[in-house]
Amino acid sequence: MRKKFKEIVRKLLYIFSKYFGLIKIQVMLSKIILQELYKNKKFSDKKNIVLYGFKVFSQQDEDGIIEEIFKRIGTQTKNFIEIGVETGIECNTTYLLLQNWKGLWIEGNKDYKNKILSTFESFLEKNLNLEIQNVNPKNVNQLIKKYFLDGDEIDLLSIDIGTNTYHTLKEINCIRPRLIVLEYNAKYGPSIEWVAEYKEELSWDGSDYYGASLKSFNKILENNYKLVCCNITGANAFFVRNDLVNDKFINDFSTEYHFNEENFELRLAFKKMHKIRIN
To answer: What is the pLDDT of residue 44?
Structure first.
């Protein structure tokens, strides 16, 4: 009941703000702040992938970052797996679907199933597979192997399942992604190792207790992947497989260099003013 009440209040505030033009003002201010951030010395190097970020269907600037990374490393299969897509309207692979990529969505919230089925019906008929069930370290490889062969190379793996992202990623051993995108917990900065306790049925409660720090993700991936970017809002980290890293990337793959603070208010800088529609 409390959750539904909060959602109703949030929608009413949004409608009120939109009606009085406050959202447009906030968007404009966020874009100004974003452009000032881009003037930081850190972003003066044209190799810095953050500069190429933009939104089509991602939550923020992930679409542009993903596109730029694949310009630098190329694609092999144009296959993806995204774990945690909600309705699919704003996630990291919808933009790729519209470019004839193929892949698998795994979403644990059954409330999103009908929306996905109705919105992406045409894609589900040809190049999108859907699994609606909770994913965890125990079943993640089994779910993936329903659609991919053991050891398959795929171009993109994206995971955003809140509290258990780290634990689920750690157990994936049946595929070889070229690029991995992960939601990290910016609260803990660039140098602290921290991981949320694993509980199979635990879902994100809206607090800052979720996932893992950037350093912790980097530690479990560092033997096979290099950190090449964190998006400007401090939400997602991008890891490229070692054999694909080349001189098109900045030669500093440390968490200390790539970490971005939590700037979730900058999401408004990428906000679309019209209702999102797929087809």
So the answer is: 87
